[in-house]
């Protein structure tokens, strides 16, 4: 087992470890500008992230390069390529020069990315996300009155992210404040109206079953299942008995 000495993640092969260190801990990312010139972008010393010309930040080289190649963000015309600019330069500055194969104390902050609860997306994950989007039937998408489609908005947002998110399964979480920012006020009102669900009150018999199943001992759970056996294995006089059977079946299947 190989360990990254910077963030303590483990790897099964040397190639995967090198790829990880190059992507998450290298100081420099290389891109090709619109004019055909190659450029090197360095992590900012404060945030340890790559800052694009559009002012967006990225914690990995692949995330930054994926964003730039997709959007081709324009470099400032006044930028002097001969200067050792922390954003764009042909040679790394002393403060941001980090060897790919050694762990320097100056990259300690970048290890924060490794401790995030959400996993970094792989190239394969992005390809699957992109394939799912391209396979969609435009006629089946949720088209808002503004003319925009929800799936298109989620796709554009998801392609900019470096870590796993519900949008990569095309799930629109209306409780997520980041989602609200993607839409206009009118669009968001339309979305929330469509997604509002009426609160359903469970029948007392179902509530009693759920309460009885709240046990910490498997033997006690089995006793409850046995108690409801007669109801389960007889004809369902009402829909309540049907739901009781399915709930018990779900518990048995755990």
From TrEMBL:
Residues 86-96 have a biased composition (Low complexity). GO terms for molecular function: zinc ion binding. PROSITE patterns: ZINC_FINGER_C2H2_1 (PS00028), ZINC_FINGER_C2H2_2 (PS50157). Keywords: Metal-binding, Zinc, Zinc-finger. Residues 2-30 form the C2H2-type domain. Pfam families: zf-met. SMART domains: ZnF_C2H2. Residues 83-104 are annotated as: Disordered. This is C2H2-type domain-containing protein. It comes from Rhizopus azygosporus (Rhizopus microsporus var. azygosporus).
């Amino acid at each position: 087992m190989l360990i990254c000495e910077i963030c303590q993640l483990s790897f099964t092969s040397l190639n995967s470890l090198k790829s990880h260190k190059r992507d998450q801990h290298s100081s420099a990312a290389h891109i090709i500008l619109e004019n055909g010139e190659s450029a090197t972008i360095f992590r900012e010393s404060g945030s340890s992230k790559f800052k694009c010309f559009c002012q967006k930040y990225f914690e990995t080289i692949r995330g930054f390069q994926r964003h730039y190649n997709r959007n081709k963000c324009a470099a400032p015309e006044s930028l002097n390529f001969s200067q050792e600019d922390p954003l764009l330069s042909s040679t790394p500055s002393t403060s941001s020069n980090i060897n790919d194969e050694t762990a320097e104390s100056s990259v300690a902050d970048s290890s924060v990315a490794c401790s995030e609860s959400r996993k970094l997306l792989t190239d394969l994950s992005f390809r699957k996300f992109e394939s799912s989007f391209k396979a969609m039937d435009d006629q089946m998408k949720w088209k808002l009155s503004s003319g925009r489609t929800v799936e298109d908005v989620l796709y554009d947002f998801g392609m900019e992210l470096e870590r796993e998110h519900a949008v990569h399964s095309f799930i629109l979480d209306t409780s997520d404040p980041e989602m609200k920012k993607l839409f206009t006020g009118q669009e968001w009102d339309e979305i929330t109206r469509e997604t509002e669900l009426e609160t359903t009150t469970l029948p007392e018999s179902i509530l009693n079953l759920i309460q009885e199943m709240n046990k910490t001992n498997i033997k006690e759970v089995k006793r409850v299942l046995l108690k409801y056996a007669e109801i389960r294995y007889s004809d369902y006089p009402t829909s309540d008995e049907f739901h009781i059977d399915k709930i018990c079946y779900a518990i048995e299947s755990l």
